[in-house]
TrEMBL record, chains A, B:
This is Proline--tRNA ligase. It is an enzyme of class 6 (ligase). InterPro entries: aa-tRNA-synt_IIb (IPR002314), aa-tRNA-synth_II (IPR006195), aa-tRNA-synth_II/BPL/LPL (IPR045864), Anticodon-bd (IPR004154), Anticodon-bd_dom_sf (IPR036621), Pro-tRNA-ligase_IIa (IPR002316), Pro-tRNA-ligase_IIa_arc-type (IPR004499), Pro-tRNA_ligase_II_C (IPR016061). Consists of three domains: the N-terminal catalytic domain, the anticodon-binding domain and the C-terminal extension. The keyword Nucleotide-binding applies. It holds the Pfam family ProRS-C_1. HAMAP family: Pro_tRNA_synth_type3 (MF_01571). It comes from Halapricum desulfuricans. The keyword Lipid biosynthesis does not apply. Belongs to the class-II aminoacyl-tRNA synthetase family. ProS type 3 subfamily. NCBIfam families: proS_fam_I. Catalyzes the attachment of proline to tRNA(Pro) in a two-step reaction: proline is first activated by ATP to form Pro-AMP and then transferred to the acceptor end of tRNA(Pro). Residues 45-285 form the Aminoacyl-transfer RNA synthetases class-II family profile domain.
Length: 483, 483
């Protein structure tokens, strides 16, 4: 491949959509599958997903969650038991109608989400208050037949996610669970993806079908649109009633359980790639980068042996210390080509080693996000490299934070909402009466919607009046365009 | 639950099928799903699968394999490009025909295996000999609509597995890859599942559709039937031809790649449970047991505080050292109940701690597989426990080995094959002409088949004549009944 074919040719700032599509393909993250709406997740993309999984899965297990696996198909009659769910998902379900040459007696839904197959089993496994809380999670793929344009990791008909499902003795326990998971998602964004995040509740008309409360993590993309980055639902007793999840309490009384569900999908990857990457390609935080450090030796005939030996020694020392390091000693590529390739592929830190570094017992470090260079002592390389990786993480976080800061504005009228989002993007918060009808004119005009309201239900609205209809405000609404 | 409900009521020896079904449910490994042929893998079962995955995945990655994820659906036209594959799987494919309220223009197969969707992408990603070997693997579920009786982990319409797909420059490289994976599967059985295994080739008429060579790991179950425990296929150039996987070699010539595929499914779990477990319940090797050691304190009112403190201290020390230990200090269950429960659930080692142990600074250890007891010093508990866990592994392996030993017999006639398998089960090896027709009478009479022939194609057959037809023998056939 020539260098031109290798590099990204579009501009993140001016053609965000085209740039993103090019990034995903050229950085080897994903390809489009032959069927519209599906993608193939390539090894570099999948390795990042595996690291993300590993963080979240460890936290889940540390807080009482156990993984399980439920069938990918759900009988139509099961889906229908919770009518809110089936109404919510009906238009998006892929149906299996034939097995081999036979038509099935009952159609099977490819799971769009698994409440309706998991909850009946929770009902079966739970007998007494001693069985509560019960928490299961599965990492799997789900299918939602949405007829919108494909955007890898953001909008695909099949996507990878985890879905947690828990049952509790009362509303308090279940609400606490909902918040625990929301906070773990927030932590994932803040501490692993280097992305600041907002947390809030979805307005009633945008809750998960059947949920009492849907909480959400929202992150702002560089183009000013908000991404729903994870959700955690308190389902009240609606699913427990539909599927008969009861337990015998300490007084031998039968009680309805309260349930939750919560999920994070590979959309988190989309948000990650979109946030940090640039016109040179992928930018990754060191926490998730498959290769954290690449060593590029620079030699001529005379210096080759010394440079390569020195470089291999540094690589071995870093590897030994658990740094994910790659020594790029390919003979058939020049250093410039290698720089471009590793920049495209998102390696956070490059170490350049030439005759001068060897002579002076030094290393030249280059940060991927901003090209900052530092010449450092060869001695103490592990600690120095780890410091620089931390610095790179902090830089990424700071830049994303700067994007968010100042992007939460206030408005007191419909015109102000439209004008502010139209001009700046970002979030606009305003007083809201709570009526979905007041979202409609904003949605119709500029495709912005209420992405969240504050977590605390009793929080005073920022203004006394609904910015749209002028009635008494019940809540503060955050309007934004969305992915 | 009463103790009677808790325990297993059937006999492994006399009612193997019923016993296995009871074991799977009562040890919390899996439940039957509402649709025939599907199961729900419960947390204890899934945790064992996760550990198994972790072993195999680490070995794969250490030997150049990278994980990826391909769509769960395959367009019918893609499946048809490799006619052998479509013929092989057609009767077993589940078809998605509708997305939402719309009928799809082209039916989508739920993947029965992914050669036909992965190979076209290998073709796209491979340009030059420098891109080879290319290896991708995915952990996913596949669906095969077989109309046989459900047997959890052995026979289910949906099952979890991994499927590796690789492309190489020539037959030698690809054959070597096939053997590398076969050996990793064998190692998994020997070193992780505590099961001795045989390796061989499938006879030509039982190869994977389109394969040049199908190699297999076979394990013998206690009831004398063989389980195909993993397979690794050298696919020659048939898939490369069908999907156009070519590369440019050093001389700028276009060449066809040689491909392989290899897979191991959760059938490995079925074989594991079936092999080691007994009438008291699940028996697991310490390598895979979610809980390796359970500490059961035995107290009366006077000794309670001292016993619990001592037990907690031992638990903390083991936990610190990385042993997966659980302290069962439940107040509302007596020690006998706890013993039964942990035996049912397959905890390899029990530590009993009562007032005498506290007084004498000792521990009483009990091995799950055979009830062997040992009283050991409290000091050095970690090392002692680790030794005992190793001993337990060795015991399990030795017992499984004993089952296999002496179960490979020879026969020189059709009657002898039938009689020997009929009487003893196990494997019968004999000379074979290579003709599928000679398998038919054995299959028809006692449902035994040729499960493998030796790996080396040039190995001399053990007898000069085919035991069935009397023609010249080409190979040694291993007949056995199968799962
Ligand atoms: Zn209003
Ligand atoms: Zn014959």
């Amino acid at each position: 491949m020539s260098e031109q074919e290798l590099g990204i040719t579009t501009s993140k700032e001016h053609e965000t959509g085209e740039w993103y599509a090019e990034l995903v393909q050229k950085a080897g993250l994903a390809d489009y599958a032959p069927m519209g709406g599906f993608i193939v997740t390539r090894p570099r993309g999948y390795a990042i997903w595996e690291r993300l999984q590993n963080h979240l899965d460890t936290w889940f297990k540390d807080t009482g969650v156990r993984n399980a696996y439920f069938p990918m198909f759900i009988p139509e009659s099961y889906l229908e038991k919770e009518k809110d769910v089936v109404e919510g998902f009906d238009p998006e379900v892929a149906w299996v109608t034939h097995g081999g040459y036979e038509e099935l007696e009952e159609r099977l839904a490819v799971r769009p989400t698994s409440e309706s197959i998991i909850t009946p089993f929770l009902a079966q496994w739970i007998r007494s208050h001693r069985d509560l809380p019960m928490r299961v999670n599965q990492w799997c793929s789900v299918v939602r037949w949405e007829a919108t344009e494909t955007k890898p990791f953001f909008r695909t008909k099949e996507f990878l996610w985890q879905e947690g499902h828990t049952a509790h003795r009362d509303a308090e326990d279940a609400s606490e669970e909902t918040m625990t998971r929301l906070e773990q998602y927030e932590r994932l964004y803040e501490d692993v993806l280097a992305m600041p995040a907002l947390t809030g509740r979805k307005p009633d008309h945008d809750k998960f079908p059947g949920a009492d409360t849907t909480t959400t993590v929202e992150t702002l993309m560089p183009d000013g649109k908000s991404v729903q980055a994870a959700t955690s639902h308190y389902l009240g007793t609606s699913f427990a009633e539909a599927y008969d999840v009861t337990y015998v309490d300490e007084d031998e009384e039968e009680q309805l359980a309260h349930t939750t569900s919560w999920g994070l999908s590979w959309r988190a990857l989309g948000a990650l790639f979109m946030t940090h990457s640039d016109d040179q390609g992928l930018v990754l935080p060191p926490t998730l980068a498959p290769t954290q450090v690449v060593i590029v030796p620079i030699w001529n005939e005379d210096s080759k042996d010394a440079v390569l030996e020195y470089a291999a020694d540094v690589a071995a020392e870093l590897d030994e210390a658990g740094v994910r390091v790659e020594l790029d000693d390919r003979d058939n590529r020049n250093p410039g080509f290698k720089y471009n390739e590793h920049e495209l592929n998102g390696v956070p830190l490059r170490i350049e080693i030439g005759p001068y570094e060897v002579e002076d017992d030094e290393l030249t470090l280059v940060h991927r996000p901003d090209g900052e260079e530092a010449t450092v002592d060869r001695e103490g390389a592990v600690e120095t490299v780890e410091d620089h990786l931390d610095t790179i993480y902090a830089k990424l976080y700071a830049e994303a934070e700067q994007t968010l800061e100042g992007e939460i504005r206030e408005a007191e009228s419909r015109e102000e909402i439209l004008g502010t989002i139209g001009q700046h993007g970002g979030y606009v918060k305003c007083g809201w009466c709570g009526d979905e009808a007041c979202e409609v004119p904003i949605k119709d005009a500029i495709a912005a919607e209420i992405v969240m309201v504050p977590l605390a239900e009793d929080e005073e609205p920022i203004h006394d009046e609904c910015a749209i209809c002028g009635d008494d405000a019940e809540e503060t609404a955050y309007f934004a365009k969305t992915y």
